[in-house]
Amino acid sequence: MQELKVIENNLVPVYETSNGEKVVYGSELHEVLEVKSKFADWIKNRLNDCDAAEKEDFETFSKILEKGRPTVEYIVKLDTAKEMAMLERNDKGKQVRKYFIAVEKKYNNRMKVPMTIPEQIQLLAMGNVELNQKVDDLDKKIDRLELDLPILGIEIDRITSAAKKKGVECLGGKNSEAYQDKSLRGKVYNDIYRELKRQFGVSTYKAIKRSQCDTAVSIIGEYQLPYVLLEQVQLKNSQLGLWGGGKHIMSKRAPKLKRKEILSTINTYCEKNNNDFVLVYLMKAAELFYKMYDNEDYASLTDLDWDKALALLDLIQCNDEKKVHNIKVILGCMMRKC
Fold this sequence. Notes:
Number of strands: 5
Distance between the termini: 114 Å
Number of helices: 14
Shape: rod-shaped
């Protein structure tokens, strides 16, 4: 049991514990309230009515009465004692409750003992640690919020720069025929952005989150042209070297070749270079020229058509796999048109 000191002794004696808690004895409160029921019954019922918890709102200890009989005494905190007085619902209960309120105000308004310098420093340090923790938590929330926002100017520049670079690469460079074709160039760039929007499920690439910017740039870097666009780009870029303005091994004044000489040259080329996979395309090209003009030695070819024929022979004499691939694309388009 704690040592108690009387601080008020007017209506009901009020005591103070060693740690400053204000309390009353249950038996003394019972006597002042002039309760008719036995103390043991009344105290249990009132504490139960207040939902009071032992060791939090009250404590008990055993003592011996003057007549030698043992009994249980209750030490009740002032807050709980106020509620117990109020539950009596009579004038005496109201009087005791008001008295307890006056005691509380009296001691709450007293000046507190000033803290020592070490105590003040400790309090400031604890406050500073708590403040720093709150600032750190706030910074983390702001960072998460910023990353969840749509991309801003600097991220937009990164994405558009990556798309431009990939578009130039897919079109074969800025000096390529495909790049100079505005329509084809627009299709390529539109497809790059279409793939980007599809990957993130957004209607515009500007709705991509800031936290997803690096992923968006990576997706653009791995982009590949779909087959239909790849075929158009290859066709466009191969036209310059094959049909227009290119310098051929054979001149326009070269001797006119007969159909059988062209077919023989094609066979010789394919056997020598083991390029059977392109033989069928070259053979069909030779037949195509023959069908287009009813003259076996191609005497009626215009200058442009003669250039095409010479370019075909240039290809036959060139062991260049990339050029062979390009001629496959071009000859395929020519035969579809015919």
